[in-house]
What we know:
By secondary structure, the chain is an alpha+beta fold. The chain has one domain (4-227).
Amino acid sequence: MISGASLSALVLADHVARYPESMAATRQNTLTGVALHRPVEELVRALCNGLASAMSQLRVADTVAGTANVPGVSVPVPYSFTAIPQAKAAFLAASGWVGADASGAADTFIVSPLTRLPAVSALAMDTPLATVGTGTGIVSSASNPALLAAATGLLNRSLLEAFQASGFFGTDDVPGSPVNRTLAATLPGYATGLATGVASVFAQVAYVGPAGATTPSAGVNSGGFIGV
């Protein structure tokens, strides 16, 4: 399971470096039981918890080429997102936000989580692989044409769940109640931006099989994201 706490610590540090004055803003509501908190800190925490949850559930495929000395075994590998600028643009278009402040917010809520996520997670493919022993698997948008839709669906659910669980964004400012209508209306924009980045995942997976056959072979494997 990917740690949302580890991710949010990195993202919040990025945000504070950009906007240190934002940490001075606090609020509470003693009438409804909302504890004293920094709104931006709780927003980042809920966002990262939702992203970590979605990524922990997401499945990806690789295309593998090598030799038939099966079974092939792999270990978790690092990965990257190749479309982070496009993810930021997708978020801004979906949210309708414009101007310098919008760009800075997108850096905090989209660019930073996607940039920091590979530091707290890895990609682990299912092994052993029955069709290729020694070879290389490529995880990319080409091997995952439905990944954007899958990531968007997971994020739409997990972000709502994370923001409700936080206790700071409830309807009528009541902790634990459904996310207030204003925020809930914006969450699909966050899902769109983050999913655009996630769908651009790229990784190379090394498979190693026992000594033996050198006949060329190919296959497809599946895997997911784990915490490190």
